[in-house]
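Lecture notes, part 5. Sequence design as translation. It can be helpful to think of inverse folding as translation between two languages: the language of shapes and the language of residues. The source text, in structure tokens, appears below.
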């Protein structure tokens, strides 16, 4: 069992949760992100994504392509 005390606990590793973790980490806070499904949340299983911030393809892409490392 991990007995570490975190400054911030984020529920969900979707786009909002990951962004919150990023900014909390930049502020030198101790962060724990919990996700019951897959990293990226719902967007990772979405078939067609268009006009998403940071998207590299102009003609759209799948959620798997967007969340791939």
């Amino acid at each position: 069992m991990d007995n570490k005390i975190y400054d911030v606990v984020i529920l969900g590793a979707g786009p909002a949760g990951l962004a919150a973790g990023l900014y909390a980490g930049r502020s030198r806070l101790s962060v724990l992100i919990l996700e019951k499904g897959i990293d990226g949340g719902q967007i990772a299983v979405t078939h067609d994504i268009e006009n998403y911030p940071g998207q590299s393809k102009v003609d759209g892409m799948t959620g798997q392509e967007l969340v791939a490392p």
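The translated text above is only one of many valid answers, since several sequences can fold into similar shapes. The first helix runs from residue 15 to 26.
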